[in-house]
């Protein structure tokens, strides 16, 4: 059913009709009905339609909501979109007065409202999933507060740290992602209803009443902005794209960790895939798919920005495409969050210790404590590293004489600094990889996710 036949003799059919229809909006069914319930109540209270009729429309919409929840709502091929489908069904249930539902409203403000309500609920679910991921990372980290691994810069071993520290970095990223979804929810919680097609209505609609009965904080202050803007969708897609980029980095690391070269971890059978050709293979496909799908969500962000950039105010049908984009981004993130959690649970860690050279900064800082300027101590340790390297000796084979030959402010006890476990224990700054700091971070994260 179209909502706009009056002025036409002929009608769009076949492929042309199909081209205009995007049934991905079907998932807006419930929020669409909720929005209509609020609208109809307001129409009755404002005496824009008789209260008795508002009540009948309300009851009809409630019935449709029940059908939807029972999985019994049927779409028809002729339904142009979710809004048309609900109005068509309402007509079947309450008769001609269904035509009053759309009083003072356009699909333009309706769809903007629906998407805001839908994304607000979806954001809440993503927040829960991100917290669960942070909890999984934190649980694993708590088993590895003393497992010493190298930290890396440029994928070269940098300083010793702990595996717990490394995993918590991703837990903090997940918490920031959840914070971004929470921030986005605040901007989602305003109602476009009452904007109409573009510039409002001559009827005495109470916009705030409808907004508040939907639990929204207020109304969009400008009707053109209300129906024509999709920055709230772009913001949501960004939340997804950044979270996917973070997951993709973690996935990339898992892929490295389970290589024979890195040897940090092994994958359990439950999260491994085999090769059809190579019998020995145990592949990290889940991680690779998370990494791969992050690309398409980054593409969604480009798509939603591109969708907006050339549009004159206010509503243009291009905007129908926002749903496909944001639903894809949201679904992909949701799936990747669950898969990543399972992947992490399927890892058993036994990483090799860092190489001895990662003690270089500890040596330099020992000299700093004795009054040597850092630039000079950096130079001294750099020379020691170079000398051992050119004489073909491993850094771990350095002797007290080697240290004293380089600079007489070294002390015999400095050789103990080559122990990576001692190095992480000695880390004094907050946020570092020392077991103490990691323990504090775990506590803090657990408090935050409740
Ligand atoms: N299906 C449309 C969308 O998602 C609803 C709004 C249609 N408005 C219009 N003027 N054709 O954008």
Give your account of this protein's structure:
It contains 16 helices and six strands. It is mainly α. It folds into three domains: 14-103, Fumarase/aspartase (N-terminal domain) (Fumarase C, Chain B, domain 1); 108-349, Fumarase/aspartase (Central domain) (Fumarase C, Chain A, domain 2, Up-down Bundle); 356-449, Ribonucleotide Reductase Protein R1, domain 1 (Orthogonal Bundle), CATH 1.10.40. The chain has a two-stranded antiparallel sheet with strand order 1-2. Strands 3-4 form a two-stranded parallel sheet. The protein has a two-stranded antiparallel ribbon with strand order 5-6. Helix 7 (207-213) links the parallel strand 3 (190-191) and strand 4 (218-219). The mean pLDDT is 96. Arginine binds at residues 25, 81, 107-108, 111, 315, 317, 319-320.
In short:
With 450 residues, the protein is mainly alpha-helical. It folds into 3 domains: 14-103, Fumarase/aspartase (N-terminal domain) (Fumarase C, Chain B, domain 1); 108-349, Fumarase/aspartase (Central domain) (Fumarase C, Chain A, domain 2, Up-down Bundle); 356-449, Fumarase/aspartase (C-terminal domain) (Ribonucleotide Reductase Protein R1, domain 1, Orthogonal Bundle). It has helices spanning 14-20, 29-45, 51-69, 82-94, 107-142, 163-188, 207-213, 223-228, 231-257, 285-309, 322-345, 360-369, 374-390, 400-406, 420-425, 435-449; strands at residues 148-153, 156-162, 190-191, 218-219, 265-267, 347-349.
